[in-house]
Write a structure and sequence with these properties.
This protein is an alpha/beta fold. It is built from 16 helices and 16 strands. The protein is about 45% helix and about 15% strand. The relative contact order is 0.15.
Length: about 525
């Protein structure tokens, strides 16, 4: 459900925390409320919206038709789409989205839920490939089995390259890319019998036809999902932004940008005040006004210079100037701004939504239900309020879905207490070594007797330091007699610490789904079916 609500000018926030145990899921709201939520979202009235330059009902119909056609065209290149070409209602859509990465199993669980809800409501289920985000890494971290321990190791699936959006990031070393699947499978196999990466990477390599690294990974995963029975379509943001509906949506905001900035920044200030956030960059930066230039909630770059920067706007009575405030400016007429934006998107100029705008567009225009993870859910608490104040609409309520899956769910949990007990024993060896002495050591017996003589002495206050020194000296002289026990305890602590570190590594929920055994697919499907029944 929406996480922000307005009471006067106050905002309320519902805390969300990832499940900690293997096989646990987070579903907000719970399954018992899903059907009523779907009905509420489908019956929302939008007649009093404040769209000034578009008819929202027409925009929704056009946007969903364009989305369906584009998603069919894109998805059929790498998977069967016959499930979406029959009797489905293409004007009813449930959506999710994520960057084209090798994300963790809890993120992948959203795609299982997405498919199930599409079947449940006989509607389209579409996952957005967020390829306008930055491709910051081209390696995968995995647990690496050493002879006596498990460590973390990174394996690259490409050379390091420029920090650019996924849609502009090409594969730089095809040999590294193709070899990645075998390397990871060999590395994880001492811990996992049938790692998903083997099947996944065959499909990923087969779908690298444009040599785009993010698209290849997303298509490989989507093809695998087809094989295991998930019925979803996908579409990259870069394709979605070429639709006329997106152009109309962007034009609506740009033509009212001064009003949008005021609302956006006020919502952000309310959020920060509620959550006592002092950083001006969290959860997102404010939109800036700099003289005649106003910052928009969109990115801009050119294909031959793919470093994304904020799109700034300067508007006059007859034209609008676009700029990145560095090395790009373009003046276009106001008369057909939406048409010009659509035309620009098919040139070398990229105008892409920032994170909040992606879900604002998706939930205002494209979908009846959006599925978020915890991170996106927190962001969209802002989106709810922006939609309410700027567009005058109550956005459809969304789901928050995640799961926790661990590579080694059976790891014992008492390592810390056992280490603590042994450390206590080590302290006992230092201060009470007589407790650990073996029989048949007459010299040690003499020292213990002398220690007890010191303990039992009654000395005046000024001479008690002498007794303390005598006891310390006896303890020191007893150390050779307990050295074997000390070495034994230290070795046990070392082994337990190594096992604890192994469990810490394998107990993480952040490992990529592709490192898990193929049985993960059945496990996630079972979690999904249990939730929805």
């Amino acid at each position: 459900m929406s996480g922000l609500a307005e009471t006067g000018s106050a905002m309320r926030y519902r805390r969300m925390r990832a499940p900690q145990q293997h096989g646990e899921v987070l579903h907000l709201p719970p399954a018992s409320e899903i059907d009523s939520l779907w009905r509420r979202n489908g019956s929302r009235q939008i007649s009093n919206n404040r769209f000034a330059h578009s008819n929202l009902e027409q925009l929704k119909r056009r946007g969903r038709t364009e989305l369906y056609n584009a998603a069919i065209e894109y998805s059929r290149q790498h998977r069967d789409v016959s499930f979406a070409t029959g009797s489905l209602d293409v004007q009813q859509i449930v959506m999710a989205g994520h960057q084209p990465t090798l994300f963790h199993a809890g993120v992948w669980y959203k795609n299982f839920v997405l498919s199930a809800l599409g079947s449940r409501y006989n509607c389209l289920a579409i996952n957005l490939v967020v390829d306008n985000d930055i491709c910051a890494t081209t390696s995968l971290s995995l647990p690496w089995h050493e002879p006596d321990s498990v460590t973390l190791k990174s394996i690259a699936y490409d050379q390091r390259g420029p920090i650019v959006p996924f849609e502009e990031r090409r594969i730089l070393d095809d040999q590294i890319f193709c070899a990645f699947g075998h390397q990871v499978a060999d590395g994880i196999r001492p811990l996992v019998n049938r790692p998903i990466v083997e099947k996944l990477w065959v499909k990923t390599v087969a779908n690298r036809n444009e040599q785009n690294i993010g698209w290849a990974i997303a298509r490989g995963r989507h093809a695998l999902e087809s094989e295991i029975g998930l019925h979803t379509l996908e579409l990259p943001i870069s394709n979605l932004t070429q639709t006329s509906a997106f152009a109309s949506f962007a034009a609506e905001i740009l033509l009212r940008l001064d009003e949008f900035i005021a609302i956006y920044n006020q919502v952000l200030a309310d959020y920060r005040r509620t959550h006592r956030i002092r950083s001006r960059f969290q959860p997102v930066p404010e939109l800036q006004r700099d003289g005649r230039w106003h910052e928009s909630p969109f990115w801009i770059w050119q294909s031959n210079r793919p470093q994304r920067r904020s799109l700034f706007i300067s508007q006059s009575a007859v034209s609008i100037e676009l700029s990145n405030r560095l090395d790009f400016e373009l003046t276009i007429p106001l008369a057909d701004l939406a048409g010009m934006i659509e035309e620009l998107q098919n040139s070398d100029i990229r105008i892409r939504p920032k994170a909040l705008m992606t879900t604002l567009f998706s939930r205002t225009v494209l979908s009846d239900l959006f599925i978020h993870g915890i991170g996106g859910s927190k962001y969209d608490q802002l989106t709810d309020e922006i939609g309410r104040r700027f567009f005058g609409v109550e956005l459809p309520e969304y789901l928050t879905i995640t799961a926790t899956m661990k590579l080694n769910p059976e790891c014992p949990t008492d390592f810390r207490s056992r280490i603590s007990d042994l450390e206590s024993q080590l302290r006992g060896l230092e201060f009470q070594p007589e407790r650990f002495l073996e029989s048949g050591q007459p010299r040690a017996t003499e020292i213990v007797a002398r220690k007890w003589d010191w303990i039992d002495r009654e000395l005046p206050r000024g001479q008690r330091q002498q007794r303390h020194a005598g006891i310390v000296e006896c303890n020191r002289q007893l150390q050779p007699f307990v050295q074997r026990k000390k070495t034994e305890f230290e070795e046990m602590i070392k082994q337990l610490e190594e096992q604890l570190e192994t469990c810490r590594i394998l107990g993480s929920r952040e490992f990529s789904f592709c490192l898990f055994d193929e049985s993960l697919c059945a496990d996630l499907d079972k979690l999904n079916r249990n939730w929805l029944t």
